[in-house]
Structures are given as structure tokens and as C-alpha cells.
Amino acid sequence: MANDDREKSERSVSRRAFLKGGAIATGALSAALIPAVGAEAQLPDAVELDPRHSTVALKVNGVAYRKEIPNRTTLLQFLREDLKLTGTKMGCDRMQCGACTVIVNGRNVYSCTTLAVEAAGGEVLTIEGLAKDDVLHPIQQAFVEHSGYQCGFCTSGQIMSTKVFLDRMPNPTEDQARLALSGNLCRCAAYKKILESVMAASRLTRA
Q1: Domain locations along the chain
Q2: Model-level pTM?
Q3: Would you say 139 and 205 are in contact if contact means Cβ atoms under 8 Å apart?
Q4: pLDDT digits (tens, 9 = 90+) for 115-170
Q5: Do the beta carbons of residue 54 and residue 117 sit within 8 Å?
Q6: What kind of architecture, by CATH, is found in domain 2-89+111-126?
Q7: 125: closest CA among 81, 156, 93, 92?
Q8: Which of 80, 81, 117, 179 is most buried, judging by how many CB atoms fall within 10 Å of its CB?
Q9: How do residues 76-109 score in pLDDT, each as one tens digit?
């Protein structure tokens, strides 16, 4: 009987140790993820850590936000559900189609697999932030004029990837454009028109 009691006690301690260790590991994982995108930010001003929730500060389309969110919240969820910026689309949710592409600190990223806490202290640009005073950005104008879309679901991601690409390479070849946008898929297979739109955008942005 004494042996049975001792075995039960050992199992109970073991379970408690496991749960405690898991909570510590979760907090450590969250802390490790923070600097990935906004490494230049001062951590105390950017994010307040908790094993489950963080208060994240960042700029989206030039507007500063500070919100408490679950640590598991993706940047896509944060944009669509918390900020109601629904121009960024949920496609595959597996970093394969590019429909969710946004720009973080000058880099195009898949927001479906980027945690919001990773963007803490950074600057995010979405499709809603391109047009100024109801005037379309030249890339948007090019996509309209050259029909670089069909259903339009992938278009915001295509445009955001195009912006980063043309910012880095304003006078590309068609092959360079194809390679740069290879991470953005189009369900309608409108690739010919998308390529025409990108090349037209390159001319408009240089004008």
C-alpha cells in the first residue's frame, strides 16, 4: 500500500514539473520571436510579454497602434480582425500562395505565418496604405489598366510584392519580374496580364 502511495505521489510531481516546464518554454519561445522583424525597436516600448498575451506596439500604414493580443495571433489575423484591414487576404494559410503578402520594414512577408509579435516596433504597409488622397499608386494603376487580375483575390499580394521588387529594381527584365513574383500564385492563372502590369508599373514609377 505504501509503495502505491509513493508511486502516485511521484506521478503527480512529474505532471506538475512537466506543466511548469511547458509554461516556461512557451514564454521563452515568445521572447525569442520578438526581434525577428523589429529588432531595432526598444523592446520595453514595443511589446510586453506574458506566457499567453502581449501588448504589441507597431505602425500600420503610418498609423501607430498599441493592442493587447494573444501571442499566437498572426499578423494576418491582427490586420484583418483587430484593425479591420481586410484588403490582405487569407489564401492557403501555409506560406504557399502569397495572397496575404504585406510589407514589413521594407520586406515583403507572408502575414499568415508571421506572428504579430514579430512585427513589434516595426512598420507595416498593406494594400490600403498605397493610394494617397484617393489617387491610386502607379502599381495599382498599372494593374487596373492592364487587367492584372481576374477574381482579384491574389491581387493585393501581387501588388505588395511588386512594390518591394520595383523599389529594389526599378528597371527589371521580364525574367527578373517572373522570378520576383514566383512566390505569389494566381488561382485564375492570369500570369500574362500580371507580368504586363508589373512591367507597365516599372515604367510608371520611373516616369
Answers
A1: 2-89+111-126, 138-206
A2: 0.77
A3: yes
A4: 999 999 999 999 999 999 889 999 999 999 999 999 999 999 999 999 999 999 99
A5: yes
A6: Roll (3.10)
A7: 156
A8: 117
A9: 999 999 999 999 999 999 889 999 999 999 999 9
The DSSP element (H or E) to which 191 belongs, if any, is helix 191-206
Judge: domain 138-206, CATH 1.10.150.120. Answer: yes
The HSE-up count of residue 27 (CA atoms within 13 Å, CB side) is 9
Contacts 24+ apart (CB under 8 A), 25-32: 26/51, 26/52, 26/71, 27/51, 30/54, 30/71, 30/117
- Taking residue 150's Cβ as centre, other Cβ atoms within 10 Å add up to 15
Higher pLDDT among residues 50 and 36, named by residue: 50
The answer on pLDDT for 25 being more than 50 is no
Query: Alpha-carbon distance 34 to 27, whole Å?
Result: 11
Task: Return the H-helix or E-strand segment holding 53.
Answer: strand 53-60
